[in-house]
Design a protein that fits this description.
311 residues; alpha+beta; Endonuclease I-creI; 2 domains; four-stranded antiparallel β-sheet; elongated
Length: 311
């Protein structure tokens, strides 16, 4: 399927909640403080909002860029691309969006800190020593915190308290398009072919739908069981939590109708459509025939990491 064919399947207009859900999965609110001898304080402050993806999803980033009407897309290495918004004027558009369509993962806390930094920069406070120190304290609680260089240069810095989501915003999914956007970034559709001598062809075909997120968002991940109203399970792997649905009836009666109504917009939609083809083959019992199993094996080889660049 080409990009033109895919575009005909879904609306070209991005739903605002889809953008927020995708940002909850893949977005980053960044503040950088780097040495600059040309600056009177010896430091330069940069700030930006970004979404970084594999180059196969260039079309998706272009749609998000069109939705916001600001920002640029850059190549980042051989395989990656990045959508970035940097100017204060353009970032005000980003802030307006996320104030209206709020983030619900722990990324909300990063966003609140990012807004604090933006306000200081808008008021030119970063050009004064006191304001710069405040920015360093904000950065101390933002994303990965302070670099070794900043800790050495500002040894007395006490990071500002990280904004708590408790009582500050709802953790519930406000709109199904948010979930579609989040799955675009953190979801996966699996086709598993398992050796099993007890089965007719010596293998068993199983489908799975999975959403992965850091364990700090445990409440959100566990809420997905109730949201999908099915026998999903949550299990932990290192610092990640995986929500997974594997029962075939749940996949066909809950998952597929959901994403048919609230579509994905990127390359993952192609994975989903091929995954649905396998589900249809299984419903027709074709996975129990050599011909059907061959079709499924071919589809499995071409999804997720096996999918080649879209032309």
């Amino acid at each position: 399927m080409t990009k033109k064919q895919m575009n005909k399947l879904i609306k070209l207009t991005m739903d605002p909640w889809f953008v927020t859900g995708f940002t909850d999965a893949e977005g980053c609110f960044c503040v950088s403080i780097i040495r600059d001898n040309k600056n009177i304080l010896g430091w330069r402050v940069k700030r930006w909002f970004q979404l970084a993806l594999h180059k196969k999803d260039l079309d998706l980033l272009k749609r998000i860029q069109s939705y916001f009407g600001v920002g640029n897309i850059y190549k980042q290495g051989v395989e990656s691309i990045q959508y970035r918004v940097e100017s204060i004027k353009d970032l005000e558009i980003i802030v307006k969006h996320f104030d209206s369509y709020g983030l619900i993962t722990q990324k909300w806390s990063d966003y609140q800190l990012f807004k604090q930094a933006i306000e200081l920069i808008k008021c030119k406070e970063h050009l004064k020593q006191e304001g710069l120190s405040k920015l360093v304290a904000i950065k101390g609680s933002l994303n990965r915190g302070l670099s070794v260089e900043l800790k050495a240069a500002f040894p007395d810095t006490i990071p500002v308290p990280r904004p708590s989501m408790v009582g500050a915003t709802t953790r519930d999914i406000q709109d199904p398009n948010w979930l579609a956007g989040f799955v675009e970034g953190e979801g996966c559709f699996f086709i598993n072919i398992i050796n099993k001598s007890s089965h007719r062809l010596g293998v068993q075909v199983k489908l799975a739908f999975q959403i992965t997120q850091h364990s700090r968002d445990e409440q959100l991940i566990k809420s997905l069981i109730k949201y999908f109203d099915c026998g999903g399970n949550v299990y932990k792997y290192r610092e990640a939590l995986n929500f997974q649905i594997t029962k075939f009836n749940d996949l066909t009666s809950k998952v597929i109708p959901f994403f048919d109504k609230y579509p994905l917009h990127g390359v993952k939609r192609l994975d989903y459509l091929d995954w649905c083809k396998v589900a249809e083959l299984m419903q027709n019992k074709e996975h129990l025939t050599p011909e059907g199993l061959s079709k499924i094996s071919e589809l499995k080889a071409g999804i997720n990491r096996g999918r080649k660049e879209i032309i």
